[in-house]
Amino acid sequence: MRHFKLPITRRSKDLDHWNQHNLHQTPFIMFKQSTRLFSTTNALRSHIGSSPVFVSPDVKISIENLLKAKVIPKGARSIKFNKLLTIKGPKGILDLELPDFLKLHTEEGKISVNITNTTDKIQKSLWGTMRALINNNVIGVTEGHSSTLRFQGTGYRVSIQEIEGVKWVQMKIGKCNLQGLPIPEGITCSAPTQTLLILEGCDKQQLNLFAGRLRNFHPPEPYKGKGIYFNGETVKLKSKKVK
């Protein structure tokens, strides 16, 4: 530890005078020279994509080439999807299209996800996303996914009804007529109470998309808090301005 001496100024004299009278009450003040450490090495980053996806023994995985590759423009460049990953488990079967730069290595109990060029911005941006989608599909076919919608407001209620052989989510949300949507294939819905809807399925993207469509009928409003809340969603209430 290096110490330096303060220059003799009026302020430093006042400080010495204060220390002489308060030394027995206050710990001695030490002034230490602060230094900054600079390094030329790059900071370590944690990549979601580099984490392996763990697979249970009852899950079957297969990869095959698409008959016709899909090309999606990305700025001045494009992304080519030419492989199809199929994951089969107790809850169902899910397919996922993969870009050509994504490399999968399957071994006992896990899947390793890699990219061909770790310095390419597009590949790095999709690395973690594709790994998360693969992990969601593995969980979906083994355990399944679930989402909830909570209906809050006077007279707000939800029910499951069958119309001409098709199951519908029927909602009463502040209007005389019922509103709703047909339940897509692969999703099951239940309403244990009049204000709670539970959605279950193996495809997380499809599940949340359907839940979002239902929520759009009446999103939570910030003044009275009425609306359809998704997965524990909260809204900070505002006070009305009085003119």
From TrEMBL:
<dbReference type="InterPro" id="IPR019906">
    <property type="entry name" value="Ribosomal_uL6_bac-type"/>
</dbReference>
<feature type="domain" description="Large ribosomal subunit protein uL6 alpha-beta">
    <location>
        <begin position="79"/>
        <end position="144"/>
    </location>
</feature>
<dbReference type="InterPro" id="IPR020040">
    <property type="entry name" value="Ribosomal_uL6_a/b-dom"/>
</dbReference>
<dbReference type="GO" id="GO:0019843">
    <property type="term" value="F:rRNA binding"/>
</dbReference>
<dbReference type="InterPro" id="IPR036789">
    <property type="entry name" value="Ribosomal_uL6-like_a/b-dom_sf"/>
</dbReference>
<dbReference type="InterPro" id="IPR000702">
    <property type="entry name" value="Ribosomal_uL6-like"/>
</dbReference>
<protein>
    <submittedName>
        <fullName>Unnamed protein product</fullName>
    </submittedName>
</protein>
<dbReference type="GO" id="GO:0003735">
    <property type="term" value="F:structural constituent of ribosome"/>
</dbReference>
<dbReference type="GO" id="GO:0006412">
    <property type="term" value="P:translation"/>
</dbReference>
<dbReference type="Pfam" id="PF00347">
    <property type="entry name" value="Ribosomal_L6"/>
</dbReference>
<dbReference type="GO" id="GO:0005762">
    <property type="term" value="C:mitochondrial large ribosomal subunit"/>
</dbReference>
<dbReference type="InterPro" id="IPR002358">
    <property type="entry name" value="Ribosomal_uL6_CS"/>
</dbReference>
<comment type="similarity">
    <text>Belongs to the universal ribosomal protein uL6 family.</text>
</comment>
<keyword id="KW-0687">Ribonucleoprotein</keyword>
<keyword id="KW-0689">Ribosomal protein</keyword>
